[in-house]
Structure formats: structure tokens, C-alpha cells
Amino acid sequence: GQQVMQIPQYQHVQEGEDFTTYCNSSTTLSNIQWYKQRPGGHPVFLIQLVKSGEVKKQKRLTFQFGEAKKNSSLHITATQTTDVGTYFCAGVMNSGGSNYKLTFGKGTLLTVNP
Amino acid sequence: NAGVTQTPKFQVLKTGQSMTLQCAQDMNHEYMSWYRQDPGMGLRLIHYSVGAGITDQGEVPNGYNVSRSTTEDFPLRLLSAAPSQTSVYFCASSYTTTYEQYFGPGTRLTVT
Predict the structure, then answer these.
(1) How far apart are the C-alpha atoms of A22 and A24, rounded to whole Å?
(2) Residues from chain A contacting residue B33 (CB–CB below 8 Å)
(3) Residues 6+ apart with CB under 8 A from B72
(4) Do B101 and A31 touch (CB under 8 A)?
(5) A59 vs B37: CA distance, rounded Å
(6) Angle value at C-alpha A27, between A21 and A33, nearest 5 degrees
(7) pLDDT tens for residues A10-35?
(8) What's the pLDDT tens digit per position in A71-114?
(9) Do B99 and A100 touch (CB under 8 A)?
């Protein structure tokens, strides 16, 4: 079945340092999504990338989708303590019509030292 | 809008007991799904539904049943609880055209 690998599993940074998490799929994806889960909370949707080579920015967050639509990355510039949480990528595989499945990576837990 | 609601928030079961985790959404989303989250394992899809009367299996369906009689509700049934089902369970919903998942607050289940 489809697998989505995410690295690193953990990342500890000093406040102000940059952070990047990477996602690789074993198969070509329809879309890829990114979610953030704060400790004790539920996953919250951040963004979806659809096109090959797409780059999107949200303030200090930059998301990229690879040319082959099999890998993606999330980069945070100048981390803040509010960035703490687990970041998940989720690959969307569309089986046709309204039938689709999401396969989540195992997530990267980001901790930030103030 | 309440969004996606889940009950109960916490539950402790003994091995062999059965129970139903409730999930409801008020956004008229066609797609609903159940995930379990275990430490270091990410979110794994249990079952999903693309509309009332239609359900399908995800990655880890064994030991769980679902049904979708209405657009709003998608209950998850544990037939005979086992310690391996100790986990946090999240329900999610979305439109089938946008894929953006709205997650409920989760149910923390412990099976002893």
C-alpha cells in the first residue's frame, strides 16, 4: 500500500532558528496536505498543494511540492515558541470520483527553546 | 457551527467489552473518516465514508465497524475491545472536492 515517510521524527531548536520537515511518498500523489497538532490537541489543516513544483507561503511558513509529486517540505523561518507542535504531511490519493484516502506521515515533533 | 463533535472525551473499557464512539458534523460534509493515533505512529485510517450508506476500509479496520445512515453521523463501533485498541481516536470530515480535513477533539480510549 501507499506509504508516506516523514523526517525527522523530532527536532529541537532555539527560538529564532529555522526548521524544515520532509515528506516522501512511495507513489505519485494527487495532492499533499500539511497539518499541525499542538500538544494535547487535534490536527489542524494548514495548507494543500496540488500542482507539480508548487510553492506556497504562509507568513514564516513555506511549503513545497516536488516536481514528481512524490515529495514535499515545510520550512519555518525564525521559529517562535508558538510553533511548538507536531507537523504532519498527508498524501491524498484519489481513486476516482469522490473516493479518496489520506495517508499521513508519522509527523515531526518540533520543540522550541525560548 | 459546532464543527466536528466527538463523544465521549475519555473512556476506559475492560477487555471484551463493546462500545460505540460517536462522531457528528454540522457542515454538510460528504466525507467522514476515523483515525487512530498512537505514539510514534502518526494517524492511521480505520474506516471512511464518502456519503450516507457508503463505507470502506482504511489501513487498520480489524476490530472496528462503522455505518453511515445520515450525512451528519458516523459512529465507530468496537466489537470486543482489546488492549491493542488503546489509543486516541479522531473523527474527521471534509467535502469530497476539497479534501481539507476538519478534525474532532478526539476520544482517548484505554482498554485494560
Answers:
(1) 7
(2) 102
(3) B24, B25, B26
(4) no
(5) 29
(6) 45
(7) 999 999 999 999 999 999 999 999 99
(8) 999 999 999 999 999 999 999 887 666 678 889 999 999 999 99
(9) yes
- Closest CA in chain A for residue B29: A98
For A18, the grid coordinates are 529555522
CA atoms within 13 A on the CB side of A70: 7
Give tens-digit pLDDT for B47-64.
Answer: 999 999 999 999 999 999
Question: Number of CB pairs < 8 Å for A and B?
Answer: 61
Using a CB–CB cutoff of 8 Å, tell me whether A106 touches chain B: yes
Residues B6-52 pLDDT 10s? 999 999 999 999 999 999 999 999 999 999 999 888 899 999 999 99
Give the pLDDT band (50/70/90) at residue B96: confident
Question: Residues of A with CB below 8 A from B92's CB?
Answer: 43
A66: which DSSP letter?
Answer: -
C-alpha cell at A72: 514535499
The verdict on A104 touching B (C-beta cutoff 8 Å) is: yes
**Whether A42 and B105 lie within 8 Å, measured CB to CB:** yes
CB contact under 8 A, B99 and A31: yes
Q: Phi-psi category of B73—alpha, beta or left, where left has phi over 0 and alpha has psi -120 to 50?
A: beta
- What single-letter amino acid sits at B82? A
